[in-house]
Amino acid sequence: MFSLSLLSQALRAVHLGNMLSLIKLQRVFTVHQVPKAFHEDSIISGYRHPRSSATDCVLSLFQLTNETLNVWTHFLPTWYFLWKLMTVLLMEDAWYDAYTWPLLVFLFSCCVYPLASSCAHTFSTMSTRARHICYFFDYGALSLYSLGSAISYSAYVFPDAWVNSTFHAYYIPAAVLNTILSTSMACYSRLGIPFLQYKLDIDERFSESQSQRLSKVLRILAFAYPYLFDNIPLFYRLFLCVGEGCTDNEANSIHVTHTLLAFLTAFLFATHLPERLAPGCFDYIGHSHQLFHVCAIIGTHFQMKAIEADMVLRQSQLLVTAPPITFNNTVGSALVCVCISLGIICLYSLPLLYGSSETHTTRTEGKKCKH
User: Fold this and answer.
1) Residue 29 forms beta bridges with which residues?
2) Over the stretch 269-300, which tens digit does the pLDDT of each residue have?
3) Which residues bind Zn(2+) (predicted)?
4) Residue 121 is assigned to a ligand binding site
């Protein structure tokens, strides 16, 4: 019996060894070994092969590269926000209570944007074309999150003095327009106008219009403007409003916390600190994009808590004084933006999917990574 037990353990060990041998660690490269389109500011090493298969991309999540923590810092929180969404759906009879619909839209956007981000970081090294398409979807998801914030702010966060004002009446339509413009500008910042500025000369366009600084500025503006617009009522409530109608309650301190985290997030994204101070020292752990992800998720958590607090504390008042919450100004607006944003992403992606120089790009990238 003892020998049979040892034999059984030995066979299991061999089987486990065979399974582990199938999982091969992917080789990582330096910035000089990958095409320019894959370069990250002040990140010197830890790059994956620019022609990785989908399987290679997934397996790379279990080894340390300069993208590993970018993926996990957004993939894991996705499940937290999904749990919050399902809790509201299953426990608060949300389908029949219109007052909860803005919260549902917001929570849905909180699930979509980290999931899209983690997928973009995972599969962006399948090819140069795939990299651009992945980030187009990432930008669309961020724009949807901006709209989700605006819809919930309109329902729960507007200061009493502005409820039912002219600005309140046009707030959601303007937020819808901002979402569409944000997706368009962010996608434009990568390659320019589809079919006009990139098609046959697509290889030359892969370096982001030869002006990475301009691309970066456009991308920051694409998301900063909707954020600032969405937060006009909140900024007024927290920092400018005096006297009656200012909505001074327990949620205000939570709003201040997530606002500070939002500005810290934007600072990290714009400055590339700390890696810009010490290139190569933060390639795998601690670079700005990882910190940007962490601050964004923590900020979103506090934003959710503040919205939930306002929703509960102001319910009796808002149900009487605020404009009625309808399908059109909640779920309907979100669906319209999803459809239009997907159309924009398809428009920007078509030249990449049906361009004429994929073969040339493949040869160039493969050759460069052999040295």
Assistant:
1) 47
2) 999 999 999 999 999 999 999 999 999 999 99
3) 121, 289, 293
4) yes
91, two tokens: 């426990």
Degrees (nearest 5) of the Cα angle 292, 49, 126? 80
To the question of whether residue 293 is assigned a binding role by annotation, the answer is yes
Over the range 66-100, which residues count as b (16 or more CB within 10 Å of their CB) and which as e?
A: bbbbbbebbbebbebbbebbeebeeeeebeeebbb
**pLDDT (tens digit, 9 = 90+) per residue, 220-253?**
999 999 999 999 999 999 999 888 888 899 999 9
Predicted structure pTM score:
0.89
- Residue showing tokens 């301190």: 253
Contact at 8 Å (CB) between 147 and 176? Answer: yes
Which residue, 134, 117, 113, is CA-closest to 50?
134
Cα separation, 151 vs 166, in Å, equals: 16
Domain ranges (residues) in the chain: 51-354
Per CATH, the architecture of 51-354 is what? Up-down Bundle (1.20)
Distance CA 352, CA 354 (A): 6
Q: How far apart are CA 366 and CA 60, in angstroms?
A: 18
CA distance linking residue 122 with residue 138, whole number of Å: 12
d(CA 49, CA 365): 9
The answer to whether the beta carbons of residues 19 and 94 sit under 8 Å apart is: no
Neighbours of 279 (CB within 10 A): 14
Report which of 115, 125, 113 is spatially closest to residue 186, judged by C-alpha positions.
113
- For 96-114, the DSSP string reads G-GGGHHHHHHHHHHHHHH
